[in-house]
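Let us work through a complete example step by step.
Step 1: write down the sequence.
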Amino acid sequence: MRIGLLGGSFDPVHRGHVAGALAVRERLGLERVLFVPTAQPPHKAGRRLASALARYAMVELALLDCPELAVWDVELAAGRPSYTIETLERFASERPGDEAVLILGSDSLGALDTWRRWTEILERTPLAIVERPGAAREQVLAGLGAELAARLARARVEWVTGAPHPASASEIRRRLAAGEPVPEGWLDPRVLTFVHKYRLYR
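Step 2: predict the structure and record it as tokens.
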């Protein structure tokens, strides 16, 4: 089986994450997509996150109506900064008969060459790049460093484009902290209720 892996802090998970995962699954014919919340994102060391448990719970709530999407807690269980290459190696060891497809937002692609053992990621794993607002394919590719661009050209990469969802986790956090309403359709109502109940971003 081909399984999509979508990693992130999901702080909070929003409808854009879910829409992107569903689009990739349909476009690439994946069996399912696993959301992989990270306990301590190494590239966000200076920012305080909602607790790992809260972020995991929000992802579970957001995916309740999507049987083809699920959560894998492999990085949360590590209890330390997690690296994508290690998650891919763990997947390969636990599911030797399956192929992982790494899902990235287009806004993250330009920093791929700062990831641990990033060249190995490109060599071993197909990528599905979801076009995000403000990070159109042509714009992102034009801004890549020479080595990353060259290696991407040789890698297995599939772009998933369409009408990007406008939801932004940073904007959601800003609005919640300021006591402003979150735009309609950005958060699953169950996630919004959870956020308010535990005052996660106030």
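Step 3: interpret the result. Residues 2-166 form a domain with the Rossmann fold fold (CATH 3.40.50.620).
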